[in-house]
Amino acid sequence: MQITNHLYLVGSEQFGISHLLDCNCYLIDGGDSLVLVDTGTGLGTDDILENIGRAGFDAKQLTHILLTHAHLGHWGGAPRLRHETGAEVWAPADGRYWMEHLEEDITIEQNFKFGRYPSNLQPQPCPPDHTFSDGDQIQLGKLQLQAIGVKGHTKDSTVFVGEMDGRRFMLTGDVVFYAGSLGITNAPGSSLEDYRNEMPKLANQGVDILLPGHSVFILRNGQKHIDRALRKLADFVLPDTFFEGNEFMWEKDYLSSLQDEPSD
Ligand SMILES: [Zn+2]
């Protein structure tokens, strides 16, 4: 699915273009680089490869796999995609441990325990080829992105800011979503205090295009959605949280009801 001249959505649960457990996976045509941002769980890799083809590229052209954070739903497809395309995996330095020690990740354990992950999902470790930290400029061919570490959803969560066709875009992973809802969860590493301390880094970024890791993307006035989150965080009432209203997407019964639907 083409979003702008050089930007495509090639994986997504809600848009129905890859597996039901996949996050939004964006493809950026940087001219001399082809960058996939997040990969989904790995269950939708065939669809993602097909969608890269539909966007007019050969999957072998993929040069970089850039990851927003080390939740499996965002990087589980990286080992196979790296193997099949030769692309380098770039990940937040603080997420490296979790990409190498899956057996210690309580979110993976719980997703299996609560039946969200099917038993045929067999996640593999994925030591990244390169890591980055808060404030780094990431140069992927001619495409330049600024990495901004924003703790709150996880300790390694990173957003990427860049410019394309004269418009500022921000890839936010699970940090901030439509209408400024936040990725607070009841998992170790998620913290409202971290959000309060770190979200102000996203003030005055002049963002036009906001590209979250789930649900809708926003093509103009993206900064207003971030500003709403900042206003809420400055108050004493709880901010809106994305996963509170959307956790049904990953519930076993909901997933199986979708899978059982008769096709026309
Ligand atoms: Zn996440």
Report the C-alpha radius of gyration, rounded.
17 Å
User: Shape, please?
Assistant: globular
The CATH architecture term is 4-Layer Sandwich
How many helical stretches?
9
Distance between the termini: 23 Å
Which stretches are poorly predicted, pLDDT < 50 over at least 5 residues?
none
Number of structural domains: 1
Small-molecule binders here are: zinc ion
Cross-sheet strand order for the largest sheet: 1-2-3-4-5-6-7
CATH class, anyone? Alpha Beta
Order of helices and strands: EEEEHEHHEHHEEEEEHEHHH
What's the CATH topology label? Answer: Metallo-beta-lactamase, Chain A
Mean pLDDT: 93
What is the CATH homology-level superfamily?
Ribonuclease Z/Hydroxyacylglutathione hydrolase-like
Helix fraction by DSSP (H/I, runs of at least 4): 25-40%
Which strand-content bin applies to the residues? Answer: 15-25%
Q: Structural class, from secondary structure content?
A: alpha/beta
Count of beta strands:
12
Question: Which sheet architecture does the biggest sheet show?
Answer: 7 strands, mixed
Q: Could you please describe the fold and organization of this structure?
A:
With 264 residues, the chain is of the alpha/beta class. The protein has a single domain (2-260), classed as Metallo-beta-lactamase, Chain A, CATH 3.60.15. It is built from nine helices and twelve strands. The chain has helices spanning 45-54, 72-75, 78-85, 96-100, 106-113, 192-198, 222-234, 242-246, 252-260, and strands at residues 2-4, 7-11, 25-29, 34-37, 64-66, 88-92, 130-132, 137-140, 143-149, 158-164, 167-173, 209-212. Strand 1 (2-4) and strand 2 (7-11) form a beta hairpin. The chain is globular, with a radius of gyration of 17 Å. Bound molecules: zinc ion (ZN). Zinc ion binds at residues 69, 71, 74, 153, 174. Residues 69, 71, 74, 153, 174 line the site of zinc ion.
